[in-house]
């Protein structure tokens, strides 16, 4: 009886295994669209000597990317420079690892409304009297990730908060001082 049961089971098992074979690597040629990620998160971590932290959500919005969330530990009542930097690496103590402002068009530094600007130039954030800032800004001209691999995509790059306000004109970074918080867009 036991032998009979086993001999019935074996062909079934082999059939099931064959049915679960994965598709060939890469999928059918010309099909399989690349998935487009339409939202991303950033956790801002403080630089040495800073207590600035934040949680942000980014979303594709046509020809812009929205950035929303909250940042705490800022200088009360002060404006702070805020940019996309070109390298998605936030290494302490000072986040120099994040490189310069993201600038795929090789334009000069500017403000969010300047004709010519770095793509990573976004509006200053403003802290309330408790050092908290509610963020709701747009990164004009940016895409989160693009199926055609456009040079405007910011997924994998870094968001950086500075000690001082960005004047939107001093080269190359708006005279906004030290990097006090940093987070990778992922
Ligand atoms: Cu910056
Ligand atoms: Zn810039």
Written description of the protein model:
This protein has one helix spanning 2-19; strands at 39-46, 53-61, 64-72, 79-80, 82-85, 125-126, 133-140, 158-162, 179-184. It is mainly β. The chain has one domain (39-184): Superoxide dismutase, copper/zinc binding domain (Immunoglobulin-like, Sandwich). The termini are far apart. The model is unreliable at 3-28 (pLDDT under 50). It binds copper (II) ion and zinc ion (ZN).
Key attributes of the depicted protein:
binds zinc ion; 9 strands; seven-stranded antiparallel sheet; binds copper (II) ion; about 10% helix; Immunoglobulin-like; about 190 residues
SSE inventory with pairings:
Blueprint: H1 2-19, E1 39-46, E2 53-61, E3 64-72, E4 79-80, E5 82-85, E6 125-126, E7 133-140, E8 158-162, E9 179-184
Antiparallel strand pairs: 1-2, 1-9, 2-3, 3-7, 4-6, 5-8, 8-9
The structure holds copper (II) ion and zinc ion.
Zinc ion binds near residues 83, 101, 109, 120 and 173.
Describe, in short, the structure shown:
With 186 residues, the chain is mainly beta. It has one helix spanning 2-19, and strands spanning 39-46, 53-61, 64-72, 79-80, 82-85, 125-126, 133-140, 158-162, 179-184. It has one domain (39-184): Superoxide dismutase, copper/zinc binding domain (Immunoglobulin-like).
Q: Tell me the CATH superfamily.
A: Superoxide dismutase, copper/zinc binding domain
Largest sheet: 7 strands, antiparallel
Integer average pLDDT: 86
Q: Which CATH class applies here?
A: Mainly Beta
Oligomer class: single chain
Uncertain residue ranges: 3-28
CATH-assigned fold name: Immunoglobulin-like
* Rg from alpha-carbon coordinates: 24 Å
Give the overall shape. Answer: globular
Query: How many distinct folded domains?
Result: 1
Q: Please state how the strands of the largest beta sheet are arranged side by side.
A: 5-8-9-1-2-3-7
CATH-level-2 architecture: Sandwich
Based on helices, strands and strand pairing, what is the structural class? mainly beta
């Amino acid at each position: 009886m036991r032998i009979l049961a086993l001999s019935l089971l074996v062909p079934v098992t082999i059939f099931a295994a064959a049915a679960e074979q994965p598709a060939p690597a890469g999928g059918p040629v010309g099909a399989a669209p690349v998935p487009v990620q339409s939202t991303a998160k950033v956790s801002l971590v403080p630089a040495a000597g800073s207590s600035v932290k934040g949680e942000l959500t980014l979303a594709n919005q046509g020809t812009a990317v929205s950035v929303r969330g909250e940042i705490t530990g800022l200088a009360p009542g002060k404006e702070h420079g805020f940019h996309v930097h070109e390298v998605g690496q936030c290494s302490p103590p000072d986040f120099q690892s994040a490189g310069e402002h993201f600038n795929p068009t090789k334009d000069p530094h500017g403000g969010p409304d300047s004709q010519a600007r770095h793509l990573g130039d976004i509006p200053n954030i403003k802290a309330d009297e408790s050092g908290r800032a509610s963020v709701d800004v747009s990164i004009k001209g940016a895409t989160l990730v693009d199926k055609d691999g456009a040079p405007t995509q910011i997924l994998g790059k870094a968001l950086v908060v500075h000690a001082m306000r960005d004047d939107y004109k001093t080269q190359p970074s708006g005279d906004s001082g030290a990097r006090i918080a940093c987070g990778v867009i992922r």
